[in-house]
Write a structure and sequence with these properties.
alpha+beta
Length: 503
């Protein structure tokens, strides 16, 4: 997933686009009518000056949006006159296109009638069993996957409701279980490889805020324990929602958000802040290393979404035991841009305000680090954020690790995030080394200067032994990441030895 940004012409910012959509101008050319679009009709609109795209069955005239698209016109043209859903999901699954493009909606695709599958006429008793979780719903999965489909059951005592999910997996852990209980709506999502199992219902009765989640990791059994508000006997667990008891690919599952409260905001540098967000009491969510969340905010009537990688509240200096904070807070290090619509809105949040935070996403796997002997982290600016948890994990839990080197690119000394903490850590742990490289230093800077280049990388990225296992992680603005990956390949590192964080 790699969203490329291109420079936009003046007057083509996100705010300018929001203003245009609110101006009352006819952006579809259909004077407000919605039409049904055939495949043949869609295919005719495939030019820059007349471009329609279908996303999830809805057709949009994106011609007026061309100049405002941060990924550039060419990116949009790849889907011109076609169903762009898959392309969109690869690059922009998290973008709230319904809100961004609502004034560009042409209508729905005309769907050819499809013969109904035979299974729909299942017996009533089977449907009832399904709602009680005895039979998992099998949506378009191969036989081998069917056998591994999780299922659930529930039972009650006078004051507790316990939902048991049988994942049929041997290596369950807290990061793979995401539970939210808002009002009477319960949503429990279990991540199984690239699939996800969902339990989602409107509960029969109200429950208290505090909830417990127990995970029997070895047998893969998960218990969600809810406290009844009133000690009444429940006749049923609740009304199943549309996606209840489904086991589908994660990418087909929409992003889920919950509102988190801003509890503190501290300055890291002149333009970067550390925000601490508190998860609701009735949410169980742990963000895995190397994964990001999306923040969603309504700005001038349009929902705007941006990805951020959670960090730790500080860099732990004592690596005797793994650092763990309570799991109730998410820490985000955010650079505030003077002309950035979204970061300005974040900066204006007051303590006690709420912001929507999504489930985690990302394709980084811990196992990539667990076998590494040399770990190199190449970061530019806030591309440092995925490196924080990674650094902590590597120094704490990777026994075969010999060296960790952070090569940190910034414009000026004032831009260096957590410089003091990084220098302290380098003094304290002999496996760790940090190298700061500035592109616009003052005269009195004695360290390295320059931008990412083949010669800089050949100087700093070196195996500690000829055959040592290496992992190189890179994160920063798109050009930095793309150039860095290319330089590393030119220096003889393989694709398997490089992980680029992109969102």
């Amino acid at each position: 997933m790699n969203a490329v940004k291109v420079p936009l012409k003046p007057g083509r910012s996100l705010m300018d686009w929001i203003r245009l959509t609110k101006s009352g101008k006819d952006l579809t050319g259909l004077k407000g009518r919605l039409i049904e679009v055939t495949e043949d009709e869609l295919a005719k609109h495939n030019k820059k000056e007349d471009c329609w795209i279908c996303i999830r069955g809805f057709v949009y005239n994106v011609t007026p949006y061309m100049e405002y698209h941060p990924g550039g016109e060419d990116e949009l043209m790849k889907a011109a006159g076609t169903d762009g859903t898959d392309l969109f999901d690869q690059v922009h699954r998290w973008v709230n296109y319904e809100s961004m493009l609502k004034e560009c909606l042409v209508g729905r695709m005309a769907v050819k009638p499809i013969a109904a599958p035979k299974e729909i006429s299942s017996t009533l008793s089977e449907e009832k069993k399904q709602l009680n979780g005895m039979l998992p719903e099998k949506k378009g999965l191969g036989a081998s996957v069917k056998d591994l489909t999780p299922s659930y059951d529930w039972f009650q005592t006078d004051n507790l409701i316990t939902i048991v999910i049988y994942t049929k997996q041997k290596d369950m852990n807290a990061e793979l279980v995401i539970v939210d209980c808002q009002d009477k709506r319960l949503r429990g999502e279990i991540i199984v490889g690239d699939h996800s199992y969902l339990v989602e219902l409107d509960l029969d009765h109200a429950v208290q805020e505090d909830m417990a989640v127990n995970i029997a990791e070895k047998v893969g059994k998960i218990e969600i324990i809810l406290k009844k508000k009133d000690n009444v006997h429940w006749k049923m667990l609740g009304q199943p929602l549309e996606s209840h008891n489904t086991f589908i690919k994660r990418t087909d599952r929409g992003l889920f958000y919950r509102k988190c409260k801003l509890v503190s905001k501290t300055e890291v540098t002149h333009d970067t802040k550390l925000l601490c967000l508190m998860l609701p009491k009735s949410t169980h969510l742990h963000v895995p290393i190397g994964q990001h969340v999306y923040l969603k905010k309504n700005i001038a009537g349009t929902e705007v979404v941006k990805p951020y990688t959670p960090v730790l509240p500080f860099l732990p200096l004592d690596f005797k035991e793994p650092f763990s904070h309570d799991g109730a807070h998410i820490y985000l290090m955010i650079k505030i841009y003077s002309c950035g619509l979204f970061t300005q809105a974040l900066d204006h949040l007051q303590i006690g305000d709420y912001i929507s935070v999504s489930n985690p996403e990302g394709n980084f796997k811990k196992s990539q680090v667990q076998t590494s002997e040399d770990l190199f982290l190449l970061a530019a600016g806030t591309g440092f954020t995925p490196m924080v948890k990674l650094l902590n994990f590597a120094l704490t839990e990777v026994s075969c690790l010999r060296t960790v080197k952070l090569i940190f690119f910034n414009k000026t000394e004032d831009d260096i995030l957590w410089r003091n903490q990084l220098e302290q850590l380098a003094l304290k742990d002999e496996r760790f080394e940090v190298q700061f490289i500035l592109s616009q230093p003052t005269k009195d800077w004695v360290g390295k200067q320059g931008k990412i280049s083949s010669s800089l990388l050949s100087e700093f990225v070196k195996r500690s032994r000829r055959d040592s296992k290496v992992l190189i992680c890179i994160c920063g603005p798109t050009p930095f990441t793309e150039q860095g990956v290319q330089y590393l390949k030119d220096l003889g590192y393989s694709q398997e030895e490089i992980h680029a964080f992109t969102a």
